[in-house]
Amino acid sequence: MSKYRKETQHLAAIFSALSNPNRLELFLRLTSVCVPGAACRATAPGGFRACVGELGKGMGIAPSTLSHHIKELRTAKLIMVRRRGKNIECSIVPGILGEIAQIFQNPSAIFGNYKIQSRRRENEKAQCR
pTM above the 0.90 mark? Predict the structure, then answer.
């Protein structure tokens, strides 16, 4: 499988996971655990972390549904999960926020100009027919 194909599959998994409103809210809550300049209660070496129960407070979803959403975010390689005694802590995968931002800021850095230009040419040819 080509690097381009692997990259698009990875991006599709990210967008698929974040397309669910509850998962998006969980991810955003996790990204805002530590506000820049504020003291973090618990800082993991790789990023921010919070207990699953804290993340799900006030969302109005069942614990089993919360677990399912956490699993989907983990499968998409957006978060990491670690058990600490009775608590399950989640943290953002290091570098994932930058990776997501890069998709929109500079897509050619991910896909390369050639692939994008090739597809544009194919689309232009198809429209001319």
Answer: no
